[in-house]
């Protein structure tokens, strides 16, 4: 394995896999927005299945590599790692920021990583998904495309996600932390003190 310092500076990529929810179809059509009245949406729905979106955000460019899959097991995660491998320049070391989901640490994943030494996995602490920049992308996807959507099938949901990814990547914006580092570290310290005082 070549030492990382002999390679170009790493492009921080962080795949974060997470459920993006289900293909939901409202039981009745909503009413459109009219002057003086907000649009409405029925609270009940029919569920047509769920999916998982694997996504990798390049924080320097803002581009996202994404792929919807029906399950979230090690085999799907390795498939997504292959996609990242093909989509990024071979000379870069890739630092992936992930949650602690068991599929990310499975033997099949470890074997794949052993054969691909440019991949470096970093795991966020439990309940610290906010530390992963791709969560902001998930939030935007949810609020801008999925939250008020009605999807009659998983294929419709996948199509909506793929369309959103294409539009996002047509004009990506670099990820920028808006909170100062000191404020983040202070919050982490306070949270740790609170947790320790509970025991």
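Sequence proposed for the structure above (199 residues):
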């Amino acid at each position: 394995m070549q030492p990382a310092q002999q390679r170009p500076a790493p492009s921080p990529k962080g795949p974060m896999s997470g459920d993006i929810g289900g293909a939901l179809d409202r039981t009745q059509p909503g009413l459109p927005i009219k002057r003086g009245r907000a649009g409405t949406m029925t609270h009940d729905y029919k569920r047509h299945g769920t999916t998982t979106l694997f996504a990798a955000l390049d924080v320097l460019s803002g581009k996202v590599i994404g792929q919807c899959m029906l399950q979230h097991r090690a085999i799907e995660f390795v498939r997504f790692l292959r996609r990242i491998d093909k989509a990024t320049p071979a000379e870069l070391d890739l630092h992936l920021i992930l949650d602690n989901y068991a599929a990310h640490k499975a033997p099949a994943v470890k074997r794949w990583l052993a054969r691909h030494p440019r991949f470096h996995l970093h795991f966020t602490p439990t309940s610290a998904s906010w530390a992963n920049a791709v969560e902001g992308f998930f939030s935007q996807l949810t609020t801008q495309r999925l939250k008020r959507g009605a999807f009659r099938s998983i294929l419709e949901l996948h199509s909506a996600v793929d369309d959103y990814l294409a539009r996002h990547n047509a004009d990506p914006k670099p990820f920028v932390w808006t909170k100062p580092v000191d404020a983040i570290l202070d919050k982490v310290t306070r949270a740790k003190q609170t947790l320790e005082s509970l025991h």
